[in-house]
Amino acid sequence: MLAQLKLGESSVSDLARPYNMSLPAVTKHIKVLEKAGLITKTKEAQWRPCKLKEDGLKEVSDWIEEYRAYWEASFDRLEVYLKSVTAEKEAEKLENQTSDQKESSPRHGKKGKKNGRKKSDGKS
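RESULT FIELD:
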């Protein structure tokens, strides 16, 4: 409805047209928007034109901007934290892989074996 009113004044009937809603339901929505200070509704004979209240949207925009800055800072801190946790996990994983490779290498196997064969003592 706000997008429609952005284009200019509209009657309650015009506002209801794109939606599958009764006029009383649309009227309730309009009252909520009016109470929130986003639109104004006047009375001209049988016609009740509605229009955007520009300063109402400015207040909403300012309020949203405060929270946008808060959430951006929060998400920036979260990003830094997640990167540090991920780096620690990757370092742990790499360390575990390295120690597993050392334990399974042939040099660290049983004495007297070379390349998986027993060392010969020269006696047959």
